[in-house]
Design a protein that fits this description.
This protein is of the alpha+beta class. The protein is built from three helices and five strands, in the order ββββαβαα.
Length: 146
């Protein structure tokens, strides 16, 4: 992990050097008892996507994501405060960074437009006809029809 100065392994051919990941301890929000105002157990992980050593296609995909954690300058900020210990929050933040980068490697299959089947079109039209007849029965009876 990046907490001990080691590189963060994303996949076989992709790794992030530890010096590209900036970790800063901040005070966690929420309940915490007496330690809440003294201990900085939450972690802000900052990762500059534009100046990283990631392959070009991964960088482009990360920057094109509509993610509120990525700011205009291309810096990804992950706040980890799930655990009470700083070490576990560092591991959590690094794992979330790894998961985010791995999710960009998965390509979505292109959507093939489909057409409704003949039977489904006929059922839809029959249902419309029946509904129209039901509504016609609700109309006021005209005096000349009597």
């Amino acid at each position: 992990m990046a907490s001990d100065g080691a590189d963060l392994q994303i996949s076989r051919g992709v790794r992030i050097p530890a010096d590209e990941i900036e970790l800063a301890g901040v005070r966690a929000s929420g309940p915490g008892g007496q330690n809440v105002n003294k201990v900085s157990s939450a972690i802000h992980l900052r990762f500059d996507i534009k100046s990283s050593s990631l392959p070009e296609h991964l960088r482009e995909r990360l920057l094109s994501r509509k993610d509120s954690r990525i700011n205009r300058d291309g810096v990804l900020v992950i706040k980890a405060q799930r655990y009470r210990s700083q070490e576990r929050n560092i591991e959590d933040a690094c794992e979330r960074l790894r998961t985010l980068i791995l999710s960009t490697t998965i390509e979505n299959k292109p959507r093939r437009p489909t057409r409704p089947t003949r039977g489904s079109r006929e059922r839809r039209l029959a249902k419309k006809t029946a509904h129209g007849k039901t509504k016609a029965l609700r109309q006021r009876v005209k005096p000349q029809d009597l």
